[in-house]
Design goal:
The complex is a heterodimer of chains A (about 270) and B (about 270). Chain A is of the alpha/beta class and about 270 residues long. Chain A has seven helices and ten strands. In chain A, strands 6-7-8-3-9-10 form a six-stranded mixed beta sheet, with helices on both faces. In chain A, helix 5 links the parallel strand 7 and strand 8 (about 195). In chain A, helix 2 (about 90-100) runs parallel beside helix 4 and helix 4 packs parallel to helix 5 (about 175-190). The longest helix of chain A has 18 residues, at about 175-190. Chain A is globular, with a radius of gyration of 19 Å. Chain B is an all-alpha fold. Chain B contains ten helices and no strands. Chain B has helices at about 10-40, 50-60, 70-105, 105-120, 125-135, 140-160, 165-175, 180-215, 220-230, 235-265. The two termini of chain B are about 30 Å apart. In chain B, about 30% of the residues are buried. The chains are: A alpha/beta (about 270), B mainly alpha (about 270).
């Protein structure tokens, strides 16, 4: 049985249709890359998976049960920015989820429990390469380090699904490369399901086991808001590091404004 | 270095430039005072330095012949107590209401409009009501400070809470935080620096309300003394009192600023403001 099933999902704001007829079945431990032009509803789709927003129609199920109406610990998230808490040091950011789970009123550990939690967190920090800055505040960290911290923090509650909203979008290419390796190794070890929204088709192709392309199937020049986007391509990806040459050109097109008459990705194999 | 916008003072130059206006003000006062006293040695408007020294000595270091206490310290204690209680109540209430309105949509819908309207009521206009309701004692004076400062605190803090990134609140929920935990572990710690700066900005209005209410009905207090001796044109008392109030206000502000810089070292951005 699939872990996540999305049935006939749609989102409308008044007359403005963002998403329509989205259907999807995702098995456990898949890594879905979500790509599409700006404003095609891919971030909206992620917010629905997060329950930050409610769909106008259709439903999302996890393990056969409808998802909770508000964000829960079963779905972790890393945003492009503001994903860590600036008033907590690196190690405090990582032990925060443990404190929240164990101490309903104080939300804090003291004494021996705090030490134990810190030891556990130290192990995770080691894996994402932040041991040397464990007592620093996020303001002193680089963008890449902050994102590594955000990922480590999101993994603590052991979410079934990890949602990544352009997590590497603000990083320079070298840092991105490192982040890719880190996220792949964590994904393999933790055996979780990942959804990653990205602007970068190459990145999506490199990391994902499956590529979901969001685009509008129908387009009315007189009423651009009438039709919403849906998943136009659902592509299984073999593990390989390079983008096939025929997709290179499409990657370029994706970064530009979409030409609406022929969806930029309609010629995908 | 040609353009004025590129010319910067050195270290000594900074101190000198900073001190210059004070020196000029003092010099101007002394010259004017001398000129008036030369014409009329009994002039009360611009007293000499010696009369200031005498007045300060009499009020601060000699016990009052009638009550046997030191007037300046009595006045200071009474005023600081009113100020402290008033500001504490306003800050406490401002924090609770500000966080509630900033974070909880239900509280925002219920209370934001009434706070917006109430904050437009001029506090001094309802001073008579306070005296009627609370009598002429301490409560009315403290209440004026509370009523004058609280709406600003509530609005400032609720705006600050509302500008916390949405991402942080969502992230906290995905880490399993309840509303209470979000308040205590995410929102409050990040609101405290703003609370301190709101308090600093409220010091000026708080002193204004304090002195106004002391001027109207009190038996001791810094504002009371100033308005009492005004009848005798006792500038030799009024000016040292004004300087003392200024110094007190400046020191409280300085202490709060340093507290903020030390206690909230996680904060990015401007220091020393």
């Amino acid at each position: 049985m699939s872990l996540i099933s999305v049935r006939n999902l749609s989102v409308r704001y008044g007359d403005f249709t963002v998403l329509e007829r989205v259907n999807l079945e995702v098995a456990q431990q898949e890594f879905c890359s979500i790509v599409g032009a700006s404003g095609c509803g891919k971030s909206t789709f992620l917010r629905l998976l997060l329950s930050e927003e409610q769909p106008s129609g259709g439903e999302i199920r996890i393990d056969g049960a409808p998802i909770a109406k508000e964000p829960q610990a079963d779905r972790g998230v890393v945003f492009q920015r503001y994903s860590v808490f600036p008033h907590l040091s690196v190690i405090e950011n990582v032990i925060l989820p443990m404190e929240l789970e164990a101490s309903a009123f104080c939300g804090r550990f003291f004494g021996a429990r705090r030490r134990r939690a810190k030891e556990e967190a130290a192990h995770l920090l080691e894996r994402v390469g932040l041991s040397h800055v464990r007592d620093a505040y996020p303001k002193t960290l680089s963008g890449g380090m902050q994102q590594r911290l955000a990922i480590a923090q999101a993994l603590i509650p052991k979410p079934k699904v990890l949602l990544l909203d352009e997590p590497f979008g603000a990083l320079d290419p070298g840092t991105r490369q490192t982040m890719h390796e880190i996220i792949l190794s964590l994904w393999e070890e933790e055996k979780m399901t990942i959804f990653m929204v990205t602007h970068d088709l190459k990145e999506g192709f490199k990391l994902g086991t499956r590529l979901l392309v969001f685009d509008k199937l129908r387009w009315d020049p007189q009423a651009p808001e009438a039709y919403g986007a849906t998943i136009t391509y659902d592509l299984p990806i073999d593990r390989r590091d390079v983008l096939p040459p025929e997709l290179e050109a499409k990657a370029e097109a994706l970064n530009k404004e979409p030409s609406r008459n022929e969806g930029p990705l309609n010629a995908l194999p | 270095m040609g353009r004025l916008i590129n010319r910067r003072p050195g270290r000594a130059g900074q101190v000198l430039l900073g001190a210059l206006p004070f020196i000029l003000l003092a010099a101007a006062y002394l010259m004017a005072s001398d000129a008036r006293l030369a014409v009329n040695p009994n002039d009360k408007l611009l007293p000499s330095v010696q009369s200031f020294v005498d007045a300060i000595n009499r009020l601060a270091f000699q016990p009052d012949p009638r009550k046997g206490t030191y007037i300046l310290w009595d006045d200071t204690l009474a005023s600081l107590l009113r100020l402290g209680i008033g500001l504490s109540v306003a800050t406490g209430f401002g924090l609770v209401a500000g966080v509630a309105i900033g974070l909880l949509p239900l509280a925002r819908s219920a209370f934001a409009p009434v706070v917006a309207v109430l904050s437009m009521v001029p506090p001094l206009a309802i001073l008579p009501i306070l005296f009627i309701v609370f009598g002429l004692g301490e409560v009315a004076k403290v209440m004026l400070i509370v009523i004058g400062v609280t709406p600003f605190m509530v609005r400032d803090l609720s705006m600050s809470v509302a500008t916390l990134p949405r991402e942080q609140l969502v992230k906290a929920q995905t880490l399993g935080a309840s509303t209470w935990q979000i308040v205590t572990r995410v929102v409050l710690p990040q609101t405290l620096p703003r609370l301190v700066s709101a308090l600093r900005l409220s010091l000026g209005p708080a002193w204004l309300f304090l002195i106004s209410s002391e001027a109207i009905a009190a038996t001791e207090g810094l504002g009371y003394r100033i308005f009492l001796v005004r009848r005798y044109l006792a500038m030799d008392v009024i000016l040292p009192y004004v300087a003392w109030i200024t110094l007190l206000a400046f020191m409280i502000d300085w202490a709060l600023r340093h507290l903020s810089d030390r206690a909230f070292d996680w904060q990015p951005g401007e220091r020393g403001l």
